[in-house]
Amino acid sequence: MADRDSLAIVIVTYNSVQEIDACLHSLVGHTSPFPTTITVVDNKSPDGTAAHVRKGWPSVQVIDSGGNLGFARANNIGIRATTSDYVLLLNPDTVAPPGAVQTLVRGLASNPDAAIAGARLLSESGFPELSWGVPINPWNELRTMIFSRLYLRKTRLLVRRMDKLSRSAREVAWVSGACMAIRRPDLEAVGLLDERYFMYNEDVDLCLAMRKRGRRVMYLAGAEVLHHRGKSAARNPDMERLRQQSHVAYYEKHLPAWVPLLRTYLKVTGKA
Question: pTM to 2 decimals?
């Protein structure tokens, strides 16, 4: 029965002391009826995140990764340190309202051919984020970039369009790793997250690996999660460089013919 299934929540932190309390407060004691463990994997945060969590949240397992290993490697450490039927990868700058976690787990349980489920992520101002999408390729990226820029400018037509799209649960190509529930057997079958990605695109890559095995990726609009997007990331001056490294790594793995053009584009635009 789904409500007897166990859940491991894995949260990777780096300089997250300002966000982690709100995240954990929304989780600890609020995942019933699922037996749940919460594991924080800290990437050697200079701001003392690991010590802060150990002191304030004794029920939370804290693992020191030993260095800034990135999102994929640190999550894999947390996944290997747990045993559960489901794994929920969650960013430290998220807050899960009552019922959101349960909706994700039950959504996966009711779709046995699905391996991954993602949530409807909302900004602090209540606007939905683009937390799901179509396969990555140059044309889709161009369309998404144009849509995103116009949406961020609060173009009325696109705001309405985005709101409507975000309220529709369906199968998608990928969901955001900021809040991603996964069946453990499927996760282990693909070898966990690909550690060639330091940060960014590892979630899209994981979803693609599942789909190549004939498994589905679901976007569950009924699971709404608040995302204080990029607060901890903004404190890392190397973030844009790391983003582009992962961008190139994804193309090298899945779209190698486009890599020279991508590198040229990044060089011309100053993003290399």
Answer: 0.94
